[in-house]
Amino acid sequence: MKDIDPIRKAFTILVVSNARGATKKLVIDAAWLKAGLLFFVLIAVLGSVSLVDYIGLLVQSVENKRLKTENIQLKAQFQIIEGKVSALENSLERVKNFAQRLKLITNIDNEDRTTQLVLGGSEMPGKSISELDTPIDKRGLASEIEERDAPFFESPFLNEVGGEIDVRETRDYATLSVRIDQVVRETQLREQSILDLRDTLMERQSLLNATPSIRPVRGWFTSRFGYRISPFTGRPVMHNGIDIAASPGSPVFSPADGVISFAGYDPGYGQLVSIDHGYGVVTRFGHNSRVFVTVGQKIRRWDVVAAVGNTGRSTGPHLHYEVRVNGIPIDPSNYILEF
């Protein structure tokens, strides 16, 4: 006997037209129909996933562009703020130097004046700002500072690969915050220091009037105080003052009140003027072309005493300016408040 194949399930689709004899029949096996439906569903799912992923990429791209724009703006703002902080630090450093010079020339710390002026100040221009001079009882606790600045160190700053904000180690917001706090504290301390200094200076008005504090001639510093190579012998020699180059005939001003103790010619200094300011301080002005004062004459700060020249042992028109305290030559730059 022959085996009889079981009847396979199929679906018949009839397509009927209005025209006669135009009826068509389409027989589709059930297995193929299921396979087709499964394939269609799979394609639909894959398409939906791809569409969602594409939309996500578009959203991420827009977000990346926004973050990059914010990154550029924040960097620009950071640079502006950093520039302002640097300018504030420089201004504060100038205030510190100015206050230090005032203390130095007025003996504000009640130390031996001659010794202090000869040795110079404890802090000189060019040194970085520090908190070493902050009283211990006014310094904050390390734990308080750490707690206050904790948000800056909770997580590392993201890089720029994904459009995130990137900050360099040496120029980050935490460092800038510390610098700002430091400058604020320094400013408060310096403000109080200047106020105390003002009160003290008012009590020492006569001493201040007799203490040199200005540049005696408008010009350019060409030689500092200390050892240098002599332009005449080529050997190291002590230079007891500073040289300020200026045009011949430029006025030489008295840096403080005093009495003329010498006005005449010296083989080395040429036309020389010496002023006794009292308190053991004497200033000397050499290589002048003309002298406008006489011995014993009383003068005040900003009075013209001579004119710049090239007399004596000189290689060009300039003023040789000396300051002596109890006969000891010291650096005149300690007595010039403006540079």
End-to-end separation? 126 Å
Proportion of helical residues: 25-40%
- Which of globular, elongated, flat, extended, rod-shaped describes the shape? rod-shaped
The number of E-state strands comes to 14
Low-confidence stretches: 1-5, 111-134
Radius of gyration: 43 Å
Computed structural class: alpha+beta
Question: What is the string of SSEs from the N terminus onward?
Answer: EEHHHHHEEEEEEEEEEEE
Helix segment tally: 5
Describe the structure.
The protein is of the alpha+beta class. The protein folds into two domains: 138 residues, no CATH class; 116 residues, Distorted Sandwich (Glucose Permease (Domain IIA)), CATH 2.70.70. Helix content is 37%, strand content 23%. Strands 3, 6, 7, 8, 9, 10, 11, 12, 13 and 14 form a ten-stranded antiparallel beta sheet that branches. Helix 1 packs parallel to helix 4. The longest helix is centred in the first third of the chain and has 77 residues. The chain is rod-shaped, with a radius of gyration of 43 Å. 18% of the residues are buried.
List the helices and strands and how they pair.
Elements: E1 10-15, E2 24-29, H1 30-106, H2 113-119, H3 142-148, H4 173-203, H5 205-209, E3 220-223, E4 226-229, E5 236-239, E6 242-245, E7 251-253, E8 258-266, E9 270-278, E10 281-291, E11 298-299, E12 304-308, E13 318-325, E14 328-330
Antiparallel strand pairs: 1-2, 3-6, 4-5, 6-13, 7-12, 8-9, 8-11, 9-10, 10-12, 10-13, 13-14
Q: Which labels suit this protein?
A:
single chain; 339 residues; alpha+beta; Glucose Permease (Domain IIA); 2 domains; two-stranded antiparallel ribbon; 14 strands; 37% helix; rod-shaped
